[in-house]
Amino acid sequence: MDDTLIRIMRLAGRGYTCSQILLKMALEDRGNENPELVRAMEGLAYGCGSGWATCGALTGGCCVLALACGKGTDAETSSERLPLMLQELTDWFVEKAKGENGGISCESIVGEAGPAASRETCGMLVAETYARTMEILFRNGFDPAGESL
Q1: Which of 34, 68, 92, 108 could lock onto 103 through a cystine, CB 3.0 to 4.6 A?
Q2: Within-domain flag for 146
Q3: Interval 16-61: pLDDT, tens
Q4: Total structural domains within the chain
Q5: Has residue 130 been placed in a domain?
Q6: Could you give the 3-state DSSP secondary structure of residue 129?
Q7: DSSP summary character for residue 107
């Protein structure tokens, strides 16, 4: 078991959801905390609460990409690479989730058991999504720790 999966399991054990876990780990890697943002990320969990919408691992991963290179203040601009990075992560996730689960909604991934089954079912998917997100950032010249490459 690698360090990422251990971190995910610890955060899940403390009650964080998939989307929160992805962002919380990204913030920790940057040496930051942002409880308000982590709290807001819970709105993406379990397909925005219904199970029918897109898995929070994908939407959370997209938020991590935007954290690194999106617009956050009036003085900033989003990276021109962000749309392509978002598309790359989405394409990868769609291929992976549809191939293994038949869809990208939370309900497709965890089945009828709902959020109660998500810890076992989703841990590896969250870990793989985090790894892919970090890979995309590095390949596009962004340091997930928030430092210049």
Answers
A1: 108
A2: no
A3: 999 999 999 999 999 999 999 999 999 998 888 888 899 999 999 9
A4: 1
A5: yes
A6: helix
A7: H
